[in-house]
User: Which sequence fits this backbone?
């Protein structure tokens, strides 16, 4: 890959990271409203609007959805933890389903535009295969021992990725979920169960204790 292509990809990557951070900051500012008994109806309406915006934003790759959710819980109190939890689960399901709906040919074209020829070729090779065949092909081509291990324990690896500090660098929850859908390696049921369990610890802790973990 020539240097100009590398610089272009680096610029795109940084743009996605900063763009996601900007969206996250805007949403965090949106929920920072004053709560008083006199404005309770308006607050309920604002919370519902923020929840819808939070779900949509968290489904977008590189948006720090977990950090936004934590900020919402700290600003609005532990009772909002259940709503934040449900919203994050919904966001990760939306991103996954979008990934499932994107045709492999479109993914291959995107890789080609970015100059990622090996990724393009791999995407085309995986397209006609079922889950088992995809796993066998990826395992056979994996250059390191750790990759086959992660493929065999892919649901656990996915749960850890969702909870990895700084996972925004990997695309955030939305990007990881989108990639999970694109790979075709995760069944809808298995993925949904993984998300439900992976997202639970922090909201549950805040809900039960009322404290920052």
Assistant:
């Amino acid at each position: 890959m020539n240097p100009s292509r590398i610089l272009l990809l680096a610029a795109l990557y940084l743009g996605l990271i900063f763009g996601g951070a900007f969206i996250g900051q805007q949403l965090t500012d949106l929920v920072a409203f004053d709560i008083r008994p006199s404005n309770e109806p308006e607050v309920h309406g604002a919370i519902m609007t923020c929840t819808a915006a939070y779900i949509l934003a968290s489904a977008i790759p590189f948006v720090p959805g977990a950090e936004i959710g934590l900020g919402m819980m700290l600003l609005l109190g532990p009772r909002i933890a259940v709503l934040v939890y449900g919203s994050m689960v919904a966001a990760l399901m939306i991103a996954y389903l979008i990934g499932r709906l994107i045709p492999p040919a479109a993914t291959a074209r995107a890789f080609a535009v970015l100059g990622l020829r090996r990724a393009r070729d791999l995407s085309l090779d995986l397209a006609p295969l079922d889950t088992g065949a995809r796993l066998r092909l990826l395992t056979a081509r994996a250059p390191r021992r750790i990759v086959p291990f992660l493929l065999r324990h892919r649901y656990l690896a996915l749960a850890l990725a969702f909870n990895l500090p700084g996972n925004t660098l990997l695309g955030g929850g939305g990007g990881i979920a989108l990639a999970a859908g694109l790979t075709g390696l995760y069944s809808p049921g298995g993925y949904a169960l993984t998300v439900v369990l992976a997202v639970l610890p922090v909201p549950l802790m805040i809900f039960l204790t009322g404290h920052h973990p």
